[in-house]
Description:
By secondary structure, the chain is an alpha/beta fold. 34% of the residues lie in helices and 19% in strands.
Amino acid sequence: MGEVKSDIEIARAAVKKPIYEIGARLGIPPEDLVPYGHDKAKISADFIARQKGKKDGRLILVTAINPTPAGEGKTTTTVGLGDGLNRIGKKAVVCIREASLGPCFGVKGGAAGGGYSQVVPMEDINLHFTGDFHAITSAHNLLSALIDNHIYWGNAEGIDVRRITWRRVMDMNDRALRHIVGSLGGVANGFPRETGFDITVASEVMAILCLARDLKDLEARLGDIIVGYRRDKTPVFARDLKADGAMAVLLKDALQPNLVQTLENNPAFVHGGPFANIAHGCNSVMATTTALKLADYVVTEAGFGADLGAEKFFDIKCRKAGLKPDAAVIVATVRAMKMNGGVKKENLGAENVEAVRKGCANLGRHVQNVKKFGVPAIVAINHFATDTPAEIQAVKDYVATLGAEAVLCRHWAEGSAGIEELAHKVVELAEGGHAQFSPLYPDDMPLFQKIETIATEIYHAGNVIADKQVRDQLHAWEAQGYGHLPVCMAKTQYSFSTDPNLRGAPTGHTVPVREVRLSAGAGFVVVITGEIMTMPGLPSVPSSEKIFLNDDGFIEGLF
């Protein structure tokens, strides 16, 4: 076996086709592509509008078990499956999220798939790309500036400075900015008040961009943002400050989906990127709905484990956009099963069939949860070189007891050739007419009951605790007409519980609700549980320490 190339070396060696050729395969004429260099482009709003009457292709969701330090490879499998479907003669498009600079320089490093199942140009996608996140940051902070400016010049709207809910954002992990006092330094700088920063991917503007159907819908949603309250508790909206028009101008280009390609020159839409453990964790509705008009199959992913990503994909994105998924793929690895079975990371190379069997409970819970939404599921075992036949068979045997199937996938090492079997099985599932999709709860269920339903049905919790202030806030929003909104759970990605160290498939645990936030423009209520932070911090050894330019001017260490 030869030397294994790093992901960035593989990406750099890719033979990319001009982006116009990739667009042509989807029937997008050159004049409807807005190029950003030779290998990436935005798709024009006019072209998207012209696709309205076309029949939709089939929608496949790729989700996963709870992430472990062993790595699962969800995006890698999403990209691999897209390539695999194209390989077996289906016209397929991959739809994934853009990367945030925070995790890129923090814990995770860059990510755009891996091995021979990647989207390229990898460096661009992980860094500034087409500037979408900068536009979102600017639009969000324009509104922040307008709020303080409005108060400075007399506060005609009567905003209660103590009840401003709109914070600021930046696309970087920076714990020092979680809670700050602004406008210090005297009369000329305004009225001092407590505020803080969230990470850009947790911004309601990000969620709005990813849920908007078109520019008109985007502007209406921006106007619906609640920035704070008056002394009589009535809400102040972004449109009250005349912010919605200017914000929409900043986001006009960012709303257009980005077209790139896989290593095998198949089309990929990379657009939007709300955090999955804080926001709703799915790529944009614009990208997904456009792709469905242009392809037989659209393969998209939801963030982190199925308890977060898939639940939000089904209950928020599909509900809001009227999407009906045809099948779901749940990604697992033998290594992760071993970790869930109690094996330490440094011992994962040794065969341990018993630990695999023990750890499969986590996978089983996700399979059963996805089926609750009426979507047929299949398991993709993302292959690692250290996996033994007995360990792989243990996973397959376990999944068979759930009435589902597990398929070994070697796309990381072999590209589309290594995932053909899964591609065929997914087509069988999707075309079998088994999908009877419905969200987990109805719109008219009270907000706290929606939280309890997710906690008991998906997390298998015993109960949800929330103090009177949280419950009163939910009742107040219901009285104001927001009771029909879905809830967006902010929870650790590492466990079904709110304790990141509790692996496997715990039951009977308690879900503590710390805070609730109304995202009236996005159209959901954010429920913050446990210790989750809307502005992450950097680890003791950030990924940024290993990222640099080599002597040839190429980026090293990004992935």
